[in-house]
Amino acid sequence: MNAPSNAGVDDSLITLVPLKVDPSVQNPTPITFDGPTPPNFTTEDLSSLNQLARVLLSNPNAIFPPPPVPQPNERSTQVAQAKEEGNKFFRVKNWSEAIKYYTLSADIAASRPVFEAGVYARDELALTLSNRSAAYMGAGQYVNALCDADAVIQIKRPWMKGHFRRGKALAAMGRLREAREAFLLGLQFDPTAEEVRTAVEEVNKQLLALQDKKDSTTKTTTTTAATPVTA
């Protein structure tokens, strides 16, 4: 079976027919040909179109799209309240309680119905998961902190904070080069972020210290190997 063609309709198959509209509600045929009836057409060809026109003319409000449905703020309030509870416990370094409330906030944000604007859920989730990543860092759960940071980046890639959280988690796991890459990527999105600049400097110092230690170890090994054995 041949695959369906993506080509458009041939222009030769299209016939442009001039029409005119009488906005009077009383007119049973508000849409008519503008001028003589074109060849191969009859007034019956307009019957379905006139039926729709009568419905629209009898209900003027239906001509215009409905106004946007106002977003209920109850869910946003619940998300913010749970997040703020998490912030309270975060400030006193009660990591387990902070993680619990950040998780609750994220669950509420993620449960938005599909017909609500997705931007609300994205912004709320990105902020809450970023906070939870920091709480996981405080609790020493670096893998969980990295997972949340990666989720933040997936949700809101241009936001510097997700890359910063990722870098902090990677650095804590000893993956310094990857951490440096994460910080530098975050700086591309926000070159003015001082906390990220400071993090880059700290990682560079750690990498330099590791390189110095490696060079020193190599030098010691070489010197030992070159020392002659005496009787």
TrEMBL record:
Annotated GO molecular function terms are: Hsp90 protein binding
Extract the coiled-coil ranges from the record: 193-220
Q: Per its UniProt record, what PANTHER family does this chain match?
A: STRESS-INDUCED-PHOSPHOPROTEIN 1, TPR REPEAT CONTAINING PROTEIN
Q: Which UniProt keywords apply?
A: Coiled coil, Repeat, TPR repeat
- The keyword Transferase belongs to this UniProt entry's keyword annotation: no
Supply the source organism's classification.
Answer: Eukaryota, Fungi, Dikarya, Basidiomycota, Pucciniomycotina
Listed InterPro entries: TPR-like_helical_dom_sf, TPR_rpt
Q: What is this protein called?
A: BQ2448_1674 protein
Q: Which organism is it from?
A: Microbotryum intermedium
